[in-house]
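Review form for a predicted model. The reviewer records the input and the model, then writes brief findings.
Reviewer: anonymous (R2)
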Amino acid sequence: MNKTESITKVASEELFEKSKMLFPGGVNSPVRAFKSVGGTPLFIKKGDGPFIWDEDGNKFIDFCCSWGPLILGHNDPDIFESIVETLKNGTSFGAPTRKENDLASFILERIPFIDKLRFVSSGTEAVMSAIRLARGYTGKNKIIKFDGCYHGHVDALLVNAGSGLATFGTSSSAGVPEAFAKETIVLPLNDLDGLRRCFEEYEQDIACVIIEPVPANNGLLLQNNVFLNGLRLLCNEFKILLIFDEVISGFRVAFGGASELYGIYPDIVTYGKIIGGGLPVGAYGAKKEIMQFVSPDGPVYQAGTLSGNPVAMAAGLAQLKKCSQEGFYKNIAIRTEKFTAEINLFCSENNYPLELVSIGSIFWFSFNGKKRIVRSSQIDPDMSYFNKLHNFLLNNGVYIGPSGYEVGFVSDKHSHHILDEASLKIIEGIKELFG
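Model under review:
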């Protein structure tokens, strides 16, 4: 497609007009509305491998991958077969099934720092439950989160940092009582001295610290091992639980997530995305002495009618069996590194203020003129460059998430050939953007 052309979006436009009468903003999740990048959101009709097609028949190389879980690409045949075979016996029972045991055993046998887990239906639900468990286990109320880390739409975690080093949060969403937010302390990333001072002041009140070890919801804010190791050691010293939110990084940067990649083990971990094979699944897990506090064994109540849904369990197991194969993560990381390196070399040679930050099979367009962005405050809030590039790529068959703060994902189905094709289109877009 010539770069001056625009794709046809007649069907998507008609569907969006209809959906605005049905849903707030016309969508069932805010970022889908394209408010950040402008224009009409695409209504996706189907996906296969690394590609998606919208309702107008436009074909795209997909780097959204349903925001991460489709590490095997769209419509993987083994996942498809597993889902169909399970559906023959029913969709949901609200009772235990063998498939819950199968998926849990497969995970626990390969992740050494958790003894038990509990399946839920989303990453947000996993985080909410993990926070409740930490409070129930410790008998303390306050939690620490880091500015720039997103943990789902949990009331106590929908807060922003105020002025000063350690400030109690104020809610960043209507409907969240300030009393909830005041139980959350927000700190800047990559500041061990500040974390220690906070621990010393509130040691008797803090139940846990929660962090994305690979912060990937507000840019890709890669942390160094000094900070993450220091965080683990401080939590040990002050006897404060450490929660790793691995909803994105779990089974994405390594089978055991960032915990395996960095060799740093949390007290409680949350998962989502990939363990459902594209269906709604989340989980949280810990050592048995912590998990025994979860009902019905203990006093921390958490339940879900669709938790451990057999169809989702089957999809997740089919996916994780492939992910666990030798070389899987190394191969996909090599392809991602080559893809990002080609674009970064072009930008460097032309002195363009754009760099693709990456880890494993995750990447992010950073228009900050430097690669090392470790805090959300370092991100240039002017997203006009990204918005223009997003529009160009849509018109040239490349789909990335509609926000400059969101990351992109490479799947196992993104071959070297497909990635080369995509990098050429991205470079063409960068030429037009800065030329």
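Findings: Residues 68 and 295 are 31 Å apart (CA to CA).
Further findings: Confidence is low (pLDDT under 50) at residues 161-168.
Recommendation: see findings above.
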